[in-house]
């Protein structure tokens, strides 16, 4: 198994999860190359001092040659870099891409939101979507969902699939800063983000908008219009997603739809009535906590979901997808227990 | 001038602003009684060590007798306590209530959201609403708006007043913790709120919902349906309000509506295109920063506003209202400069 | 196994660790009573929503009767409450007290810092101290160290034991807020602690001062004078301990002393030269990361240590001690991998 | 008046303070050029959205030509860039350098800690030091102190000057992140600093060490040995300085020394006994809050001081120095009121 982009946040989180994976503990799953871009040549401990057991591992340069020969390759690369690597890897290698390159099924959406050559799409690593699990069993190419689409899709897919809402969904997601990655930027400095929340990419400008729309439209079997507003909050991890859509059902009916949709899901938990999701209770966990209610005055279904953007929102989904792809137990290496407070 | 509830956050912020008020500096406005409930007998410095010039002031008990005889009285009391005090104060005394007691014009809304006897309503301290300023000139009883309604009302009043949106507004507001007050509660401990965001009072349950609806309906001249979701974020101050409503105008047309509405307002700033509000830039300031855009895919007007919940959201509005009521310059003691980073 | 005080932070962290303990996973270790004081009757999920697998467990009242009959009992109670419970439990029950009641060997120190009846002292749960591990094997009563003493003792014990410093140690420890517990207090509100650091209990006033002195004096074989300054920082978890003491050795010599002392310790990691400890890399982990250097201008050994106050500083030490007491592998249920960023 | 480096944190804070300066309000002090390096050509509002009244000001490039012709020039430049600019400015221009270039009187210390050509030293902008105020009256070149040395020098100068401690001082300072500036670096990203404290530059490695030693030695009239440990905390602003030094006086005697030293100082406040400084109470303020105690067991004087690193620690000192240099009232544009919570 290899991890490309091991010095980044996605790479680090994949490694954190793998260290507790039963197959790693028994030695069935072995850690081969850890690669990086500009950080090649340094030790993992310089970038991820929290991964003490791997602190002395030296990062090699991210090349197809370095990654070839591994049975499983995780890619945590900047957008646009995965295709060139992936096409040089054997078709039998399980390649799990945490980037956006292979998420969108619509090349026009790709052109509008990302640009550059459209690379196609791979099986999408969100087993909780209708039909999502089946697509991943035995897959050798997997596109890990974006962090915002994970929260929004799990929050609204049951409602649009069951037809209990009109296909117009408003999503406001409040995210920790690690979702913006580890490349140094002035507006992500601690001094800038602490003590402040800010919106960005409003009015449909954020790249995750078409991905949410794609997921919900597929679940609904009809086009779902999505309004998406991302907000940056002063915390390292976590996304709280608040969604609403016009409905005429009661809260009890809506809860029943969600109960049926997620009762068998190991990572999605509908909270007891009256208890609301908070990101602080899913840090480091692969869980999604949900609450569902109806605003009868406004005629809206309101759904709130909490995830850890780096775990269920990225690396946890990658490991969960790997488990399905290669035949491990789906929950291996993943927990529903967060670190709190 | 007296401040009741001086050891709380609203009281402390009123005092912070008054210390820079020109009339205080010249001695025309003098600080009389500072009162508290359980903290009576202690010094202000024990509760507000940031107010060094007033550190030795001793808090007296909050009684009508203690407050009587002042020409201006600010009330920063728990909800439900203002009416009993106010009715014992002279009608000529300018009484400015930071609590909810006199905000709602609809007694049914009061019954549903607050309960207890409905005390009536006072002139509402939000000069930026249509007709809002006129109501305050010479007023002797003023109800300071709630912090969430301030952000949401300033964000959406121009659009509903101009009729450029359908009267269905979705509001998600992300607030710092000081809005919840200073009474010790386990779920507001630093350990609980840091590193976490959480929703609460969803689906119309929050008490500020009817107040937002009241303001927007008055501005629109028709009933405006409001869906309101409050979110608690790990920061002491600030509210970021994100709003949307169905529209068919262009972004340029919408911006023009807001430009006209707020060009003459000293505290409301429409940011340049592409720049988004952040709470960190209005900390300690009475400013509201706004951005307006249209999501053409979703057919929605999107408005984002940032305020400091303790300043423009509470104490700044109280001081601004006082200025209008007693004939000071409206901006006295108030600034559009925040403390950042 | 039972946990008293399960709704508090120490109790919650013990449960978090136990959920991954091999003996719990296999069913050899079973969770019996979870008890609480005022929270008895509520579910664990209301207090620790991050412990999803235990969310439906109902808390019973903390009484000796409720705890009796368990082979292992963890006590996470307010100081002064453990003795009365413990004396009613069988001598064969392994009782592990996270409170201060049985830590101090000097009744005069107890009188001065805690007061009330001196209850005696139990084997001290810090295996990394000289002779510390032996005391715990087979023990049935264990006093878990205080969080500050854990960091300070691990940081300075090797130096005082080796005699490379004069027995005068200055300790400044910067702690997250969870160390102050979960009882609601106004000065621990998020609004108060975020964006601020403050000292407290300076000049020898903090109760952990005699415990640090006790540990270092025992390690040194002579009285070690300790100056201790605790500082509260705006984060939920973690303690960074900075220590200094007069020395005449070189940095290389000092590092060699620490290398020898901790090479075989599973949880203590001397970082590579030039890399400094940060609390963020040990969150949720039982690791202690250390750096050792000499300020040649000042003639001082400088040691910096990072721990998670709730894990190695409390619940991790409790589990580690349990492992030694009952014959599990010492590292069971404990990790050296933190959750970061 | 001109500000070079106006898009940085020091520059922004100078502008924030100047906006409230009486001479600016009356128009006697006028804002000329605002300059920047890479940010030249952009508006101030893009970098300091909290300075709304100046949002449209365009930054010009930092050159001596651009700065010439102003009567007062503030330099907020990276270390090593001030000398080349300053020597091209008229000797009558009041040049106030917020960088380190002209702080150290000892060229050997400069060589060891900074390197490059030693530029000499200017009158030092800390009026509260013995003789400090006199040096600044009428000065045309001023070196603003480093942020850490400000806290440590104010905390310990009275004690060393009065001879009540041995000349060996241990300083541990916990700082917010803005002290590290605004240049993007991976280890200063919000994701890295939130939820974590870390030490850096220990054992005498930090550049502020010789500056603290210089100040305290001058105050003592003899060489004072300084051990300095800086710690980075998760907050944007503020420095809490904890100091200790061997003493044989009582706490009352020590407090008396400090009372005498600072009674007439407008910005230094010795807190009542039992109240401890916290950075949160001096945010945006030019105040220094102090507490003084004696640890009789350890035989140490313990002093704790809180400042805002950007205000009293940088820009406030710059404005205070300007006031003294050009004959304004020393406190003009400066406040002892912080923004809290």
Automatic annotation (TrEMBL), chains A, B, C, D:
Keyword Oxidoreductase set for record: yes
Subcellular location: Cytoplasm
Ranges where the Semialdehyde dehydrogenase NAD-binding domain occurs: 2-137
Catalytic activity as recorded in UniProt: N-acetyl-L-glutamate 5-semialdehyde + phosphate + NADP(+) = N-acetyl-L-glutamyl 5-phosphate + NADPH + H(+)
Group of enzyme by EC: oxidoreductase
InterPro entries with a match to the protein in the record: AGPR, AGPR_AS, AGPR_dimerisation_dom, AGPR_type-1, NAD(P)-bd_dom_sf, Semialdehyde_DH_NAD-bd
Domain of life of the source: Bacteria
Recorded metabolic or biological pathway in which this protein acts: Amino-acid biosynthesis; L-arginine biosynthesis; N(2)-acetyl-L-ornithine from L-glutamate: step 3/4
EC number: 1.2.1.38
Active site per database record: 147
Gene Ontology cellular-component annotations: cytoplasm
Ranges in a coiled coil: none
Keyword Oxidoreductase part of the UniProt annotation: yes
Molecular functions per Gene Ontology: N-acetyl-gamma-glutamyl-phosphate reductase activity; NAD binding; NADP+ binding
Keywords (A to Z) from UniProt: Amino-acid biosynthesis, Arginine biosynthesis, Cytoplasm, NADP, Oxidoreductase
Function: Catalyzes the NADPH-dependent reduction of N-acetyl-5-glutamyl phosphate to yield N-acetyl-L-glutamate 5-semialdehyde.
PANTHER family: N-ACETYL-GAMMA-GLUTAMYL-PHOSPHATE REDUCTASE, CHLOROPLASTIC-RELATED (PTHR32338:SF10), N-ACETYL-GAMMA-GLUTAMYL-PHOSPHATE REDUCTASE, CHLOROPLASTIC-RELATED-RELATED (PTHR32338)
Family statement: Belongs to the NAGSA dehydrogenase family. Type 1 subfamily.
Protein name as annotated: N-acetyl-gamma-glutamyl-phosphate reductase
Organism: Rhodococcoides trifolii
């Amino acid at each position: 198994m290899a991890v490309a982009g091991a010095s980044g946040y996605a790479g680090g989180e994949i490694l954190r999860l793998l260290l507790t994976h039963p197959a790693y503990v028994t030695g069935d799953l072995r850690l081969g190359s850890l690669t990086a871009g500009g950080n090649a040549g340094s030790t993992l401990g310089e970038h991820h001092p929290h991964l003490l057991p791997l602190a002395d591992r030296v990062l090699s340069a991210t090349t197809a040659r370095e990654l070839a020969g591994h049975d499983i390759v995780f890619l945590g690369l900047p957008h646009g870099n995965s295709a060139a690597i992936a096409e040089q890897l054997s078709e039998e290698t399980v390649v799990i891409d945490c980037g956006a390159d292979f998420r969108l099924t619509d090349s026009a959406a790709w052109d509008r939101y990302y640009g550059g050559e459209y690379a196609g799409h791979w099986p999408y690593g969100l087993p909780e979507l209708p039909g999502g699990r089946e697509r991943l069993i035995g897959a050798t190419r997997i596109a890990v969902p974006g962090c915002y689409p994970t929260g929004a899709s799990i929050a609204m897919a049951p409602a649009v699939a069951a037809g209990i809402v009109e296909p117009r969904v408003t999503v406001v997601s409040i995210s920790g800063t690690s979702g913006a990655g580890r490349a140094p930027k002035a507006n992500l400095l601690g001094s800038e983000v602490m003590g402040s929340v800010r919106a960005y990419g409003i009015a449909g400008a954020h790249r995750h908008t078409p991905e949410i729309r794609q997921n919900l439209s597929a679940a609904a079997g009809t086009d779902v219009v999505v309004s998406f507003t991302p907000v940056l909050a002063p915390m390292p991890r976590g996304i709280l997603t608040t969604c609403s859509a016009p409905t005429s059902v009661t809260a009890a009916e809506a809860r029943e739809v969600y109960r049926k949709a997620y009762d068998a899901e190991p990572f999605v938990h509908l909270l007891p009535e009256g208890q609301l999701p908070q990101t602080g209770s899913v840090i480091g966990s692969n869980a999604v906590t949900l609450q569902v209610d109806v605003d009868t005055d406004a005629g809206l279904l309101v759904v709130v979901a909490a995830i850890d953007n780096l775990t269920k929102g990225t690396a946890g989904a990658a490991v969960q997808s790997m488990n399905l792809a290669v035949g491990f137990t789906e929950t291996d290496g993943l927990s529903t227990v967060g670190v709190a407070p």
